[in-house]
Amino acid sequence: MEHWLPSDHLCGKYAMSRWRYLRWWLAAFVVSLLSFLSLWLPALFEGDGAVGCAGYGPLPSGLTRLWSVLEVMWLDVRQEIAGTHGRYLVLNGAPMVSVLLSGLVAAWSKRWLGTVVGLLGALVVAGVALHWAFMAFSYWLMLSCGGWEGRLPWMMWRLLLMVGFGSVVVLLIGGVRVRGAALATHARS
Q1: How many CB atoms within 10 Å of residue 129?
Q2: Which of 17, 93, 150, 189 is most exposed by smallest CB count within 10 Å?
Q3: Complete DSSP assignment for the chain
Q4: Are the beta carbons of 179 and 106 closer than 8 angstroms?
Q5: From CA 69, how far away is CA 155, in angstroms rounded?
Q6: Are 136 and 157 in contact (CB under 8 A)?
């Protein structure tokens, strides 16, 4: 009657394959946590990082107009989400929550559901990374016409957040791919 139960050997193999893909989610969570904590890095810099500028820097006039339209569209969307300090923290904390939820679903669900939730989590994190990409590019354009003096750490901070959250997207997509391969291998054995 007990012959249908999986053997200890198979359970051990499955646990090993589960760890093989869940470590991607662990790495993504650590990187998203470090990126979130880096929001407080500017406390170490002097000044407020503000740049005053009448226009943008070294872009041709057509691109400047296009960029200003894109920036206004992005700011309108972002304003609804990150209007206050609390919402700003929620926006930047969303990657950690997405990684945790998609990791839990990846650990305990069927293949297709884990893939869908993992990709949705990566999409949420990509939105936050895109936010910081827009912020870094806008700041760079203003620095080009307002001067770089003493403001390089502020530029690097924006780039650090963009790279941090972008790395989380890569880790999540890598985890989804490795999970799919591990589950396919487990199903064949």
Answers
A1: 23
A2: 189
A3: -GGGSPPHHHHHHHHHHHHHHHHHHHHHHHHHHHHHHGGGGGGGSSS------SS-SS--HHHHHHHHHHHHHHHHHHHHHSSSHHHHHHHHHHHHHHHHHHHHHHHHS-HHHHHHHHHHHHHHHHHHHHHHHHHHHHHHHHHHHH--TTTHHHHHHHHHHHHHHHHHHHHHHHHHHHHHHHHHHHHH-
A4: yes
A5: 22
A6: no
**Residue for token pair 């679903």:** 105
d(CA 105, CA 26): 13
Look-up: residue for tokens 């827009």? 134
Compute how many other C-beta atoms are within 10 angstroms of the C-beta atom of residue 126.
18
Distance CA 165, CA 170 (A): 9
Measure CA of the first residue to CA of the last residue in the chain; give whole Å. 22
Q: Which residues are within 8 A (CB) of 173 and not within 5 positions of it... i.e. 6 or more apart?
A: 118, 119, 122
Q: What is the pLDDT along the chain (189 residues), one digit of tens a residue?
A: 334 334 444 444 555 567 788 899 999 999 999 999 998 888 887 765 666 555 555 555 555 566 566 666 666 666 655 556 667 788 889 999 999 999 999 888 777 888 899 999 999 999 999 888 888 887 777 776 666 666 778 888 889 999 999 999 999 999 999 888 887 776 666
What six digits make up the tokens of 17?
């394959």
